[in-house]
Structure formats: C-alpha cells, structure tokens
Design a protein that fits this description.
- By secondary structure, the protein is an alpha+beta fold.
- 30% of the residues lie in helices and 23% in strands.
- The chain has a six-stranded antiparallel sheet with strand order 13-12-9-10-11-14. Strands 4-1-2-3-15 form a five-stranded mixed sheet. A four-stranded antiparallel sheet has the order 5-8-6-7, with helices on one face.
Length: 360
Amino acid sequence: MASSKAKRARKRGPVVAITGLEGRDNPYPGCAVARALRAARGDALELLGFAYEPTLTGSFRRDLFDAVYLTPLPGDPAAVLLRRLFEIHAAHPIDVLIPALDSELPLFANHRAEIEARGIRMLIPSADAVKKRYKQRLPAWAARHGIASPRTEVVTDPTTFWKQPEWTFPCWLKGSLADAVRVDDEAEALAVYWRLAARWGYPVLAQMPVIGEEFDVCAVARRGGDAAALITIRKTVVSSAGKAIGAQVVDDPAVRAVAHKILRALEWEGPLELELMREASSGRLHLIEINARFPAWVGVTHDMGLNLPDIALRLALGEALPAPREARTGTTFFRTSHTTLSGVEALSELLADGRLIHKP
C-alpha cells in the first residue's frame, strides 16, 4: 500500500473520477470524456472510472482508465452513494469528479457542499437549475423565456391518453431520465409506454415531432451561465432513437444565440447538451431536450480543435483557459464501436474486490 501511495504522490497531474462507463448499444458519455482528457493530457493525469455494474464495457478500457471502482446504482439512497464515494476517496484521493449521467446530477447538486468539503471538486449546476430542465417541466419553462418547444405531455393513463382527438401519430415517447422511442400507432405506444416505465420509472412523456433539421449544442458554462466554450453540430445520420450517428460542425448564429439564451436563463454551470430542431415550415428553432451532461460524441471534440472536457476540467481546477477558439467548421464525424480485449480475470477482480487496477 505504501509503494502504491508513493507512486500516486509522484503523479504530476490531477486525479479525475468519471462515471457513465456503458459503451454498448446507446453508449454513455464516460468513455468519451476520458478519451478527450487523455488526448489533451496524456499520462499527466490519473483517470478513475466509476461503474455501477461490473459488466459495463468501459470498465475494461485500460487505455483510458488507471483504475475502475464499483459504485451503487444512481437511484440508490444518497447515503449509500456518498458512503461509497468517500470510501474510494479515502483509498484513492480524487481531485475532480465528472458526473456523466443525468440521473446522478440531482444527488451531486444536493450534496455539493458536503462533497467539496472533502476536497472533491465538481463543475455542476445548482439543484434548482437541474430541476428546471426536467422533461416534464421544460415546455413551461421554455414558454416563460420565449423559447419554442414542441407540445409535450405526461402520459397519466396509457389506455385513454391516445383517445384525445388533438393527439396524432407519429410521436415520441420519452423516459423520465433517458430514452426516446418513436411510435406510429396506439398499440405500439402502449407497448413502449410500459417498457419505458419499467426501465426508467415515471413519468413517461409524449412529445409531438418537429419536422426539420436537427442540431446539438454541447457547451461548458461558468457559474451563472456564461459559456466558456460551445460546439454546434448538425445531425446528418440519426439512429431510431434520434441519436447522432453522423454529424457536422456548423457555425449557425441563430442556434448559437438560442444556446446562450438558455444557458443564461438557467444560470447553468458545467457541461450541457441542447437538442434543437429548426422547423422546415417556419424556420423556427424548437428546444427538444436539455441533457445535464456531455453527449456521447464529446470524445471527438479534441480533434475538432476545441476539447470541451479539458476546458471543464480546467474550470474545475481553477486553471487558466486556453485562448478563445472555435471548433473547425465543416468537421464531420461518424460514431463507431470500440472492441477491447480483456480476460475473465479482470471481471473476477472487479467482482471480488469492487475495483480493477489497470495501472498500479
């Protein structure tokens, strides 16, 4: 143990813990955040992965993480999650924690003072800002701030909701924390409703579609909602769940203006992803969703010339930011999968010890 601590003491850079290590069908952002930080800093930092389930594929990315620790599920009681966080911190002191899942933000925002009192820094929004962008609250919040958004309703009774004469298909059904599924008729809507409720809990929301061009804005904001950096992409290839499989960096002043307006209205701090649609018939921008974390494509921002995770880390550490710059307009990316070689002994170690040390 002493030699291990000595090795860590000789590290030149910070120790950064990252959550959200799932890398399968609909990947979480954790590995992408780690990839961007490695690209920016190489081995001049130590990356810890937090995995709530031992088979999350990012746990075995020894090219990204120095060590991985098992943690409770995001929905577990706060006392359980905090106890585990502080256990890990006692054994492996953490400088910065970067939550990569929407479901974690309420807990970390509510217990920010307690966590930061232990010396763990975070760049996250206030608990009030987190609540404002909840899916069921977003349309009313957007209307108050003069921002267009599509009609969205909580599905209170899935057997009668679709009888409303003003509700038409196709539409989107959305889980309370994540997931969006397009449904084309009442039978499909009923089946998807129960599937989303079983996975994400209540409420389940229905949202009318907006036909037009799809944009994502990924931003990093200082406290108060001032954008330290942002990148706008136009989706060119979209999955059945509306996720960007292929996209291009664009310079769109109207999209940028809406993004700045939203950040200031929320008084946001930290990473944020905005999903926007430009309606083909009117040219009007509609706010579809606000995700309180980095998107899963953020790993390529280093190659775009504007490494957003590294900017977030600099803000959390109080480091100077690089000279203002923009992502390279026209840069195109396509998302691919990554296959990692590992052995059953790695999974066994994670299961037995609750941790997996890649680089002792």
